[in-house]
Fold this sequence. Notes:
The complex is a heterodimer.
Chain A: E1 2-4, H1 14-18, E2 24-26, E3 31-33, H2 43-47, E4 53-55
Antiparallel strand pairs in A: 1-4, 2-3
Chain B: E1 4-9, H1 13-24, E2 29-32, E3 47-49, H2 50-54, E4 64-74, E5 80-92, H3 94-107, E6 111-113, E7 116-124, E8 127-135, E9 138-149, H4 156-160, E10 172-181, E11 189-194, E12 203-210, E13 213-221, H5 222-225, H6 231-242, E14 247-257, E15 266-267, E16 270-272, H7 288-308, H8 318-341, H9 346-357, H10 366-376, H11 378-389
Parallel strand pairs in B: 1-2, 1-9, 2-6, 4-11, 9-16
Antiparallel strand pairs in B: 3-5, 4-5, 7-8, 8-9, 10-13, 10-14, 11-12, 12-13, 15-16
Helix pairs in contact in B: 1-3, 1-7, 7-8, 8-11, 9-10, 10-11
Amino acid sequence: MILVQDNRCDLCGTCVAVCPVDAIEVREADISIIHDKCIDCDICIWVCPIDVLSSDQKVEVTNE
Amino acid sequence: MSDYDVIVVGGGPAGSTAAYEAASRGAKTIILEKDRDIGYPVRCGEAVSDAGLRQFLEPQPEWIAAHINKISMRSPDNTQIAFRSDAVGYVLHRRIFDYALANRASQVGAEVQTRAYVDGLIMEDDSVKGVEYQYMGEKRKLTAKLVIAADGVESRVGRMAGMRTATKLKDMESAYQATVGNIDVDQELIDFYIGTNWAPGGYLWVFPKGNGMANVGLGVLGSLAKNYPSAHDLVHSFLKEHYPDATMLTSVCGGVPIAHTLKHITGNGIMLTGDAARMVHPVSGGGIISGMVGGQIAGQVAVESVNAGDVSRKGLESYPKRWRKAEGKTHEAIHRISETIKTITDDELDAIAHKLKSVPEEDRSILKVFTTVAVKKPKILLDVTRVFTGF
Lengths: 64, 391
């Protein structure tokens, strides 16, 4: 599961742009992960410019 | 009967330009902006060329932070190569600039609604007929003949219409940017730092903002980001080492899509423009002017199609055609070259910089840079030839 470190997200939407399954919503004041859609590919974690996303599991997924 | 002819989602330069074009041609138009402010937060390096800007409006002193007439590039070992050039461009106060563009649209009749988060589309017969949005916790709906999605890097509105907008990591820069105070930089020079040590797979910029301030930021290529410190950490360590007395007045992060334009930027009743359509220059990462070019064409085609009574994908087909002619084709070519540019190693960058350093400043030119790069990396010559000959 992808976790958001509370109050640190800058709401820039970079993760939204790369999410392959449209599982992230960023509004004016909050970010939410739609866990039913999330496939734990972790690319949002890598692309986040300020490291506010993390995973509670270790899954190896390759991505281009 | 629709509430509006055109709904523009997003009040950045692309959205406001689209709204201006549509409204000035008589279309009933509204801009829906999700944030409380047009133009804020500023997630941008804020540099534009003089020629690019003048296609749209006369530069105004209130939104110009610095006049640029020198460009500098630094290699990984900090060898600096500078060029002088007249009327290169400007570093903007985006916050004021974006206000001016939205105001320009409203002065020709466009409405503007801030705090409006679009979270759904009204669909009918496989065509977009309007939007659903949240305003201050209240759910609202608006119908329109056409929706222009200028919703930035996230590009969710297009996705809601079933279009493919998700961007690959190799086409996304993970960026962080600060407006910095108490920094002693040449106020007429834009400074680029190129190399893995500065910004892996991207570049670091120091752009003057007047009065001893600067816009400092960098992008890390998404596909490399996993193996390097975050953009945030890289900016902070750069400032600590090179400008220890500088203060951070604002800092924000953001994504810069450096893909070529999406294959499909139209659907039934919908057009995508600006960052949402991936109209950013694939090497420079600049998206202000190209977004305005896209927005302008989108706004014009919107009115033509609404007036012709055909807003189907077919009815909108002159939009991608005109965009491709204006910028899109060049972006495709540049995107192809960018793959080769990314293979230049730090050692090769240093060698190129040392070679150019031996050329007197007045003799330095883009052509000289190009030929020096080509000697080190002949494939670039091949790629450029392919680009220009169409292969």
